[in-house]
Amino acid sequence: MNTLETPVALKSFLAEQEQKTLLRFLTCGSVDDGKSTLIGRLLYDTKLIYEDQLAALENESRKWGTVGEDIDLALLVDGLEAEREQGITIDVAYRFFSTSRRKFIVADTPGHEQYTRNMATGASTADLAVVLVDARKGILTQTRRHTFIASLLGIRHIIVAINKIDLVNYDRTIFDQINEDFRAMSADMNFASITPIPLSARYGDNVTAPSPNMDWYNGPTLLGHLETVDFEDERLESPFRFPVQYVLRPDLNFRGFAGTLAAGTVKPGDPVVVAKSGKPSTVKRIVTMDGDLDMAVEGQAVTLVLEDEIEVSRGNMLVAPADRPEVADQFAANIVWFSEEPMLPGRQFILRTETDRATVSINDLRYRIDVNSFAHEAAKSLELNEVGYCHLSAQSPIAFDPYADNRATGAFILIDRLTNATVGAGMIVHALRRASNVHWQALDIGKKTKADQKGQTAAVLWFTGLSGSGKSTIANLLEKKLLVEGRHSTILDGDNVRHGLNRDLGFTDEDRVENIRRVGEVSKLMVDAGLITLVSFISPFRAERQLVSDMLEEGEFVEIFVDTPFEECAKRDPKGLYAKALKGEIKNFTGVDSPYEAPEHPDIHLQTSGKSPEELLEILENALRAKGIL
């Protein structure tokens, strides 16, 4: 046979595979409901396990198995050693398999509450969710949480796999009750279809073939429903969206924009516009490694070449001119919180979309969603795995669609700016018509002119340290010295500001964040007026001090760490607060039952032990002169 010719049978097979639809689905639900076992059963019964895999599975079942002498099918997808030791799923395990009717990618997601972030990862690309329910236990909290997250993430088809039905003697009344409970729970989640199936993942009842043990059930098997469910929507009719991932410029004769179509279709000759700038052009070519295409569709990775030399960089988006996405710097979103540190409104994060990024702050937590009752509850923060509806403000506009319209362009993650950890996932609901529609008023006199008039350099001198460290004392001495020298300054003191601007705030972590945010905005106004602004606040969190620094231009923020040991501060105790806090009479007191995050690299470090306030003032003055502030 000529090796350059593909056999007819192979050609036919490949053509047949290309015509099959691909269904992405996930298994989810509470811990020990049998998710991994169910996927293992699917692979086993569809004869998609190779002989060497089966032999390895038999050996591993003897070592790690939890089903006696039987093969433990869960081990097919529980690949981490920690998963096998504990008998739980930790990471998301993806498996591809195919039948004569359809191709599948299944994500086995963990049931444990602490790994909810991994479940959300698996759900973000799925078309259908198989929610497992232990027939003995019914609907649990994690069942509700996973179902709700599935609805938030745009999944519209649900299979309620009522597993371990063999352990309740195949009782129809239990099946009916769980089905009724699930439908009542999910009544407001807008699922297009909910299909309950009684099954036993361990023994294969109703997984790939009808069970002889349930003559009362005449519905589909799990595989039968997966092969026939109509999940294809109007995605090809959605407006064209092409997030630019990379600009290709191998030589002077080629400039292309690489990415994956997030929605719609595109052909050479189609008009397009840049989402953020609105600049128009026309698609000249659709380039791939295998040659140019006559059309590209959603999900295809291609390179677009345009007729015009317009500016399109990574993070921007090429879109349909007649149906453009939102471009805004403020928007509302549902957020699933992943971090063990609570989400505090006012704190800044890095927002990442499919290709774009921006610094963003959560301005307002409008409400928290109770996963048991789905009620909207007033809250000041989100804890691990909680879901909230929030208003966010970005430092620069981003292009997006509401998540309900486009999952690819309406989703984002939040990244902690200090640790780079992913702390949350968000689904944009709509733009907020606020600051985006308010234009800056051009002013003739800028802050440099105002500072020059006063013969000084405007700056924020930010004194941070424990209560009683001496911040206010040193700041007060410095302002006296500035006054003698004829400089224009003002002091913002933590205690004094709480009598006016921040009188409505308490001392919780949430209120402390808002306290500093407001003072940062006032400090910025003072710098714009050309003043030297002395700010004396405990400001216990690094993230909030960084927030203020980011509000100002380079060199305008000077962090001064008044470093006094806790024991010395408690000994001084000028206001009697430490004594009360140590007795438990004052809650949320910094250094006692609320943390203080000392600066890691302060601009000026004042170590106070063994030094008088006057000596510290001299050290401070010398440091400020060296920085050009004085």
The Rg value, from CA coordinates, equals 30 Å
Helical segment tally? 16
Which term fits the overall shape? flat
Strand adjacency order, main sheet: 7-15-11-12-14-9-8
How is the CATH topology of the largest domain named? Rossmann fold
Query: Which CATH architecture of the largest domain?
Result: 3-Layer(aba) Sandwich
**Helical content class:** 25-40%
Q: What share of the residues does DSSP label as strand, in percent?
A: 25-35%
Structural class, from secondary structure content?
alpha/beta
State the major sheet: 7 strands, antiparallel
CATH class of the largest domain: Alpha Beta
* C-alpha end-to-end distance: 87 Å
In CATH, the homologous superfamily of the largest domain goes by the name P-loop containing nucleotide triphosphate hydrolases
